[in-house]
Amino acid sequence: MSRYQSVIEPFALAHVRVVAGDESGTVRNNMTVLVNAAGRIEQVAPSTETSIPEEYHYLDGTGKTVMPGLINAHTHLFAQGKPLNPKLATPQGQRLVARFVHSALGKPYMASTVAQNAKTLLESGVTTIRTLGDVGYEVVDLRERIAAGETAGPRILASGPLMAIPEGHGAPLIALTSSTPEEARACALRNIEHGANAIKIAATGGVTDAQKIGEAGSPQMSVEQMRAICEVAHENGIIVGAHAQSAEGVRRALEAGVDTIEHGSVLDDELIALFRHNPNSLRGYSALVPTLSAGLPLTMIDQKVTGITDIQLENSKTVVEGMVTGARQAHEAGLMVGVGTDTGMTFVPQYATWRELVLLTRFAGFTPAQAVHAATQVNAQVLGVDDVTGSLEVGKAADLLVLNTNPLQDLHALEHPALVVAAGRPVFRPSVERFQQIDQMLDRVYE
Ligand SMILES: [Zn+2]
Predict the structure, then answer these.
(1) Which of 134, 253, 309, 384 could hold 203 in an S-S bridge, CB 3.0 to 4.6 Å?
(2) What is the residue range of 36's domain?
(3) How far, in Å, from the CA of 425 to the mean position of ligand 1?
(4) What range(s) does the Amidohydrolase-related domain occupy (predicted)?
């Protein structure tokens, strides 16, 4: 079998240990998985009861573990995840970068950057992603090319630019801005007309571009604007994620009807009830996607090393504390908690989705089985793709992650996949370009 194939060749993955990705951590030994020419799972059964059709490639999986491919519900593909230059996070800096990426030179640069980063995600075991804030519609284009089998990559839900207020979080680099519900609606419609199948709102300020202490979580967009965005998205069957880094920001976004709260904050009973039953959301509930990977490094690594400003550090401390507490509370309350890392942000490499699972066990009370469950089946449900992916069920896309050891015993098993299969297309000997300094630093602080 060639390294990347546009035509899917059926294969059997024989004698593997299957980790189902359910909450209780079901493991079945000596199983064989059949993948058909449509790239779908045809059968998952004990090897002794499986007859492999002659025309199927045979992959011996003895000693290996297979689980559903990971899903990362919060990514950005415009950067690799090395530290962002704090100067570029200022409004002036962002305007400069924005001018470049929308220029004749910048567009092809962006197209190849997002393709490369998506490939890195894939080779790290991630077979579905949602982007939440793109420069333009370059990820929409990439999504189509991947779906057509023209290039390797994960299944993508692409947001296009996020929805913000003028000078708000993400503006102007990765945002369309609006000041009224009518304008907000027009912005959301523009994204949808350009093919976006996810919508992102900046409900509050953020850490990276905050210019004063307290700005990170302070509410920005009005409930009415957010409501207008949710309405137009939901009319089109599209879920809305909102960046919200304070309790008040979370409350307003939930009231407006957003389907996922990104990052999050300290919760109270009222907020927990609103997550569980949210009449304005698309499916009647909202989920939390904490991104521990994005916040913790800024507070745990020495400021001299991170190079962040005093303002960024102070804002980080507040929002990270809230985010970690909120994640734990949501998990304890049995809310839907998805897994996202905010790839592309400072210290969040595209290949490090596995770290978020480790962090959820360390800081938010998850068992390894629950973390695997959240990153597969729960994420699929939260993103509304559970009819095609998230578990190893017959008929679903063959999104497989093959590992050398059992991740339920040690989640570090996820760090170096043996084989990744996306929609039936295998990536043999997956490898990514790692940033050794960042990896060592993170290994050290998370030890
Ligand atoms: Zn983000």
Answers:
(1) 253
(2) 11-68+389-428
(3) 28
(4) 65-426
Domain for residue 445, yes or no?
no
In a domain, 443, yes or no: no
Q: Which residues surround ligand 1, an ion (CB under 5 A)?
A: 342
Domains of the chain: total: 2
pLDDT tens, the chain, 447 aa long = 445 566 899 999 999 999 999 999 999 999 999 999 999 999 999 999 999 999 999 999 999 999 999 999 999 999 999 876 766 667 777 788 888 888 888 999 999 999 999 999 999 999 999 999 999 999 999 999 999 999 999 999 999 999 999 988 888 889 999 999 999 999 999 999 999 999 999 999 888 777 788 778 899 999 999 999 999 999 999 999 999 999 999 999 999 999 999 999 999 999 999 999 999 999 999 999 999 999 899 899 999 888 888 888 998 999 999 999 999 999 999 999 999 999 999 899 999 999 999 999 999 999 999 999 999 999 999 999 999 999 999 999 999 999 999 999 999 999 999 999 999 999 999 999 999 999 999 999 987
CA separation for the pair 244, 370 (Å, rounded): 24
Cα–ligand 1 centroid distance for 61 (angstroms):
36
Distance 12 CA to ligand 1 centre (A): 38
Residues 310 and 343 placed together within one structural domain of the fold: yes
Q: How far is the CA of 76 from the centre of ligand 1 (A)?
A: 6
Q: Same domain for 253 and 232?
A: yes
